[in-house]
Amino acid sequence: MGGSSTGLPDIVAVNNKTGTLLTIEAKSGTSDILYVPADQIERCVLINRMFSYYEKTHIVLAFKFMRKRRLQRRSQIIYEGRQLVEHYVLADALSKRTEYPIIKCMYDGVTFAIYSGNYKKLRLPPFRMPFMKSQVK
Hints:
Blueprint: E1 11-15, E2 20-29, E3 33-36, H1 38-50, E4 56-65, E5 68-73, E6 76-81, E7 85-90, E8 102-106, E9 111-115, E10 118-122
Parallel strand pairs: 2-4
Antiparallel strand pairs: 1-2, 3-8, 4-7, 5-6, 8-9, 9-10
């Protein structure tokens, strides 16, 4: 649905039976760190506020670390195999802030908020996506 050129989150999903709206920002890559820019967090918050009709609104950050890890050794780019890892975290707590941070997610799922170059470790709870039978680690 969205993306940086549309000004919308990557996915907006609704369940009218349960009155639930999910705004999802998804990142994937071959490095050990993935980032969600502050403006993309803000977009999720704005969509949730716009659709306040829904009883339950959630911001979900989805991170996918690909099977191939990209490394630079000397002046050469190489790829190493590794386990595919996905992390889904509930980022509703970010909507209560007046300034939105850049979110940094590590391969192991540890997340940080970055404000003006200062890092703060976050404890964002895992989120079980509706299509999953069990949490992906």
